[in-house]
Structure formats: C-alpha cells, structure tokens
Amino acid sequence: DLDTKWTLHSKRVPYLEDFLDKLENIIFTNTLRQYRFELGNVHQAMADIRLEQMRAGISQATKEDINAILRKGCDYFEKFVESFKWEWDEIQKLKPAEERSKDFVLEEDYLLAYILGKCSVASMQMKIITADKADQDKNIETALGLYQYCIDF
Fold first, then answer.
1. Distance CA 126, CA 140 (A)
2. What is the pTM of this model?
3. HSE (CB half, 13 Å, CA atoms) of 99?
4. If you average pLDDT over residues 95-116, what whole number do you get?
5. Does 109 have pLDDT greater than 90?
6. What is the DSSP annotation of 13-51?
7. What is the DSSP letter of 131?
8. Is 64 strand, coil or helix?
9. pLDDT value at position 77?
10. Taking CA atoms, which of 37, 104, 105, 136 is between 20 and 30 Å from 80?
C-alpha cells in the first residue's frame, strides 16, 4: 500500500538527517556518503510514490510538494557526489606540492557509486513538474548534461 510506504519513508528521514548533521566530515566521510546516498534514495522513493498517487488521482500532494521532495533528494545525491571531490582535494593538500595532481581522479572502487549518484540527480531532475516550457527545457537540459557527463567520465 502506497500510503504505508510513504509513512515509513517519511519517518526515516528525520532520523537519518539528524544523525547526518552530527557526523564530522573529515572522520566519517564514508558514513556521510552512505547517509547522503540513502537520503537521496528515500526522497526519490517518496517522490515516486506521490507521483504514482497523483497519476491515480488519490494524492492530496501538490506539484510544489513533490518538487520539494525531488529537489531535496537531488541535494543529497549532489552532496554525495561532491564528497568524492572534497575527499580527493583533502588528500591532495596532504601531498608535497610536486606530487599533487590538478585533475580529479576517482578510484575505480568508487566509480559505479559516483556515476549512480550523478544519474540519480539527472533522473530526479527529469521528474520535476512544471507548466513553464522554459523551466521544463532547463530541467531536461540539466539532466541531459548530467547524463553526458557520466558517459564522458
């Protein structure tokens, strides 16, 4: 039942967000990543439930409500993706100047997760509801740019 799924997901969010806020970036990078990815997934699932209910005519959620959920999910996925660059930058700072690399290089072990995070943002971007053609075109262009980035990466 979609309402039960919605309730379960919505109850998870405050606990995950509270825990995330209390973690220290430097020490708990991988844990922060996992929580950000999980919160992105939860918001994506919640938005999908509301979209399905809206299509079936059984949801009181407005397009603004759904868009807010999608944007928050995008934010978590973007922070997840940015954490790889942040960690790489921090490692470069520890190296002697002559050994530092200017080009962001991602370890192979993280490649799939990184790409999945980028693609999740693109997917959610495509679901944002708008009646304005210019906004819709911008959302599609942003999503396609993210997909192209993943292909090129």
1. 6
2. 0.81
3. 6
4. 85
5. no
6. HHHHHHHHHHS-TTTTHHHHHHHHHHHHHHHHHHHHHHH
7. S
8. helix
9. 97
10. 136
> CA 49, CA 42: separation in Å to the nearest integer?
11
The residue assigned the tokens 């906004």 is 135
pLDDT given for residue 10 in this prediction? 92
Q: Is residue 73 within 8 Å of 126, Cβ to Cβ?
A: no
- The per-residue pLDDT of the chain, averaged, comes to 89
Contacts 24+ apart (CB under 8 A), 120-125: 120/40, 120/41, 120/44, 120/73, 120/77, 121/74, 121/77, 121/78, 121/81, 121/146, 122/146, 122/147, 122/150, 123/44, 124/43, 124/44, 124/47, 124/70, 124/73, 124/74, 124/77, 125/70, 125/74
**What contacts 24+ positions apart, CB below 8 Å, involve 53-58?**
53/2, 58/2
The two three-digit tokens of residue 54, written as one number: 């809206």
Q: What is the pLDDT of residue 65?
A: 93
